[in-house]
Structures are given as C-alpha cells and as structure tokens.
Structure to design on (326 residues):
C-alpha cells in the first residue's frame, strides 16, 4: 500500500516575505514565479474606503509614515490606515518590518532579511494586486489563487466601514469571483465569516483563523472554545477550514526528543475541515525544532495538514516535490 497522500498547498505568507518586504507587489510576483499555490492578501481600508494590502491596521511598522506625516498618530501612538486617504497612502514607502522602541530607534524584526531601503516600494491597493496576479496568471500560464484576510472588522465597523461588504464587492469584479479562480477568505472574527456566508450570501471558501485569547485580537471570538471539538463542529457550519497557529498543533518534544502533537488536526478532520496553519519561517522556528525541514516534516508528513502559510514558499515547494503525494 502506497504511503502517498494528497499534495498540500503552499500559501505565500504576505508574498515571498522571507526575501522581500511583505505585501509588496514584487514580493507577490516572486512568490508567483516560485510556484506558490496561493498568495496572501491582508486587507484594511483607507479613510476613503479603498481596500489596500497591509498586514496591520496601522502604518508605522512597515512604512515611513512618521516622517511624511508627523503628528498624525492617535493618542495610542499608532498611525491608523483609516485616518489616511488613498492619495496620502500613495505618498508612503513600504519597507521591511521594524521594531520601533520608545527612543524612535528602528530594529528589523528579522535581521538577515531584505535591508531597510526607503522609497523603493509602495502599498498596493487590493485591485492593483489582484490585477497584477491575474496578469501573471495569463503570462505565465499558471493560475495562483489568492487568500484574502479581512483585518480587524470590528474596528472598521465601529468607524463606520463594512469591510466585508466592501472587499467582497471588490473581489466580485475580479476573476476571483465565486466558482472562478481559486480563492479563500479568512478572518479571526467568526461573526464576520458568518456575515459573509449567511447575510451577504457570497459563496467563497471561508477559513476561520484561530489565535490565542491573550493576543486580544479585534474580535469577540473565544479561541479556546473554537479549538474544542464542539467549537470545530460549530465552525463546520459556516467555514471550510481553520487556520491555526503552529504552536497550537506542535506542543514541544517528549523525553525521547520526539514531537508532541495536539489533537487539533485530527479533530478538525473529523468535521471535514481543512487545516492551513501559520506561519512557517526558517528564521523563527518553534522551540524544540532545529531545522526548517524538520518543521515541514512534522506538519506535512506527520500531521498531514492541507496547506501551510510560509514566508519561504520555495523551500516548502522543494520539500513537497521531494516527498510522496498523490
């Protein structure tokens, strides 16, 4: 009997972000060329309700906003994308993610990644990015899916913006309409996913992201409950899969040095849920994992997850090509 099994998908986390600044068009183009199955888009809105591709709801960690628009931060010190219109967003440049301390010094989150260079990259709108990917699908003869995350819908809603409706309307004008090119919609907020399915009645494949309650995500979701068997069964009523944090599955090593797994993957599969964990980085391995290949082997071979989010799509693709799949 063959030990082959269905090939998992590789999702380029914010593009080929291990090599180029996250969510830049060139990062997505490189990930497409590497052969990633899906390219991820985190989406927030501008003041004039334009969906842009940006991981955070604020701007200072990955742009030069403090230099271009000094004194535009809110009382908590953050420069929120919702406070800037698209013309103002166009004036910013995007760079490798930085840690900003109280003394206004800047330290890269990942020391050996793309260096800090100002005025080289810009923040794309969702429409611009999807148009570029569609163009690459045509010119390369290979269709890459998109994997869209709605960021902080509760904060958008409280500011008067229905981010779910705005983004769904934008996507419906693209080739990534339901039953068209491959697309997933993900969100940490369960209420938003239910809204898309039951109120907007848009038939996209939906993924429930699962975080930790201590992260204080912008949602009323209780992740401890969602991770339970009853919670997973409930998710199966509105979503096609889950996106758990890798350390909710890999729990460390036993006394023999072997990986310990939670029952999350097995329980999810019991309810026919896809499992797409995040985030696989060769420069940020979980404690107890010594190499990126070891990490991939545990999740792709041992746990047989259906796909992974990774900053290094080429490394994951190479590993999969060397392994046995149907």
């Amino acid at each position: 009997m063959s030990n082959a099994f269905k090939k998992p998908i590789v999702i380029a986390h914010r593009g080929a972000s291990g090599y180029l600044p996250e969510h830049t068009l060139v990062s997505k183009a490189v990930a497409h060329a590497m052969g990633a199955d899906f390219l991820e888009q985190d989406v927030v809105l501008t003041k004039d309700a334009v969906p842009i591709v940006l991981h955070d709801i604020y701007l200072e960690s990955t742009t030069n906003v403090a230099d271009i628009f000094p004194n535009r931060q809110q009382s908590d010190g953050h420069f929120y994308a919702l406070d800037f219109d698209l013309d103002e967003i166009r004036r910013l440049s995007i760079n490798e993610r930085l840690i900003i301390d109280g003394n206004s010094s800047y330290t890269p989150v990942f020391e050996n990644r793309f260096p800090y260079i100002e005025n080289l990259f810009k923040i794309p709108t969702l429409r611009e990015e999807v148009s570029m990917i569609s163009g690459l699908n045509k010119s390369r003869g290979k269709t890459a899916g998109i994997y869209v995350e709605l960021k902080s819908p509760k904060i958008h809603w409280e500011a008067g913006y229905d981010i779910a409706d705005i983004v769904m309307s934008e996507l419906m004008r693209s080739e990534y309409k339901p039953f068209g090119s491959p697309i997933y919609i993900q969100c940490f907020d369960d209420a938003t996913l239910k809204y898309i399915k039951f109120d907007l009645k848009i038939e996209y494949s939906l993924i429930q992201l699962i975080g930790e309650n201590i992260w204080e995500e912008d949602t009323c979701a209780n992740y401890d409950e969602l991770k339970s068997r009853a919670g997973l069964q409930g998710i199966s009523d509105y979503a096609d899969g889950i996106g758990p944090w890798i350390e909710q599955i890999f729990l460390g090593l036993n006394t023999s040095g072997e990986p310990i797994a939670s029952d999350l993957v097995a329980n999810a599969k019991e309810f026919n849920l896809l499992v797409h964990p995040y985030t696989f980085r060769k420069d940020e391995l979980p404690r107890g994992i010594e190499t990126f290949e070891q990490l991939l082997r545990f999740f792709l071979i041992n746990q047989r997850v259906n796909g992974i989010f990774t900053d290094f799509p080429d490394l994951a693709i190479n590993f999969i090509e060397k392994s046995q799949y149907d």
Residues 126-140 form the longest helix (15 residues).
